[in-house]
Please model this.
Amino acid sequence: MTRTTDALTEATTLIAILRRIPRGRWISSSELAQRLSDDGVDVPTRRLQRALSSLVLSSDMNVEVDKTTKPYRYRRGPDVSDLATTRLTPREALTLRLCEEHLKHQLPPYIARGMASLFDAAKDVLHEDARSEKARAWLNKVAFVSPALPVVPPAIDGKVFETVSEALFRGSLIEIKYVNTQGHETVGTVSPLGLVQQDSRLYLVCVFENYDDVRHLALHRMKRAHLLERQARRPEGFSLEAYVTSRHFNYSNGQKIELIVEFTSDVTARNLRETPFRAEQELTKLPDGWRLRAVLDDTPAVDGWLAMWRDAAGIRLVEKRAWLDPMPGDAATAEAAFRTASSGEAAGAADPADPALPAQAEPSRKPVVIVGGAGGMGKILQAFFRRHGHPVRILERDDWPRAREILAGAGIVVVSVPIDVTIAVIKQLGPLLDPDTLLCDVTSVKRAPVEAMLKAHTGPVLGMHPMFGPDVVDLARQVFVYVRARCPEASEELRRDLLSEDISVVECSAADHDRSMSIIQALRHFTTYAYGVFLSKIRPDLRQILALSSPIYRLELEMVGRLFAQDPRLYADIVLSSEANADIIRAYVESLAPELDMVLRRDRDAFISRFMTARGWFGGWADTAMKESGRMLALVQAERRRRAEAAKAQPKPQG
Model:
């Protein structure tokens, strides 16, 4: 009997684990253990590891493992059968499809993931089962129409949504990066309190660490979210229902008004009886029309309703009188809250110059000091180091009187300042560093900064170059150049942290880096700059150029426009940073003279001959480039087509 019971327990455990391994998406063993724990399934670590090994070895289960990361990650192939899913009836399948469609932003992520197999099965039943014809047709017989002006829903980062939802379900803190409507970027730690969907927008209701006022933040403006292990704080007496029904989601100014409207339309009167503004509103019949009286929040929505129905309802009188009964709950709105946070007044957006940032790190990891950490790249580095357990301090221009205090005990110091002041900053830092501090820089040239760091500091030195700009929202698959100049073992832990986020770390010498950057950055940026400057001089009709462009040329033109949308000082520093850059740009410009001569002579044979010579140098990579760019272009076109179809599908406003 014991052997039978053990076998049954083992089989039940395997099924429980298998049900929680997603199709086509990786899940780590630690995430899997957490999901089992959330569902009340107790599987010890060693037992879970043995079970996963068994599932991977079984060809019937089609479970794949990725051993390139620690902990290992697992996923199921698309053709795997789900042992836990029974055949659904058409009625059940229809119910599940409606649930998936209308509750996708309300279900906690772990429940949504757990329901994935049922949702997939429901789609299969409605598609394949002949009995499902009427149920399938039902999906095209019901619709939801918002009273708001139709807009294309804003794009929400899937990772952000999942992290926020997971934190809300677990009751955990999250570290977020948010950009408000003024473009101000804020990094802070919040306790999530609720998710609210208003028409096409989704908001996180939350409270910042060390503050009591509740705010709501648009999820589509959230650029990054990182789940922390610390417990979130829920303000005493907080009610999401009360928060939503107060002024926070109707753009109220915090005051109430007594609205009095006289109008002539019987149809409008009937509508107001059927769907009143408030249960206690008064609608009175007059000899020549109707009179409405209601106490409402003073919002632009009231003015919008009056403007929209003025003619159709025959509105002839509108009065707004101040209502003396004050409205409870006068917390600031999300945007006002972030304007405050961006100015450094909120704890969630700690002053970049303040070395005493909120402790969010393991004591075992030494502090990181980022010189220039308030800049775009500095903020990316701040979030990265915090994710990996380092306390982060910031050293800005006005902080040099306190530099020794800020740098004391730092394990890593990163110089993230403009190229033209990098050497001077490194010289200032040298005497203030502990002997075992790892000194790094992130400039786009390497030889001069690395030499300066070696002279200024006796300890470990690392030159880095992140090959991306401050506008990236995800570091996965980005490239970090790594120049280990002294004590290479001291930078190994940082390298492992970079690799853990799927960042490509490319090691080379400073000289090799600078030679390559002369082509990758300086020459490429110069040719793009020269092309854009030339276009601005001949001033073609840009709209006509875009209208006549093929998709590939439009994409190329967008890359030119992208450069001119950014900081000219950054590109000036890159292009003008060295004699080597000037030499290769001069060689390029001088090489154009014979090409121009060939064009003026209209020498077709010479053009084809030089074309084939260049093709020979590119070799097989030219074909690879054509395929890769074709795939990229197809994705861009598909996205444009999706947006166009979404815009076309939006119902037109009724007059």
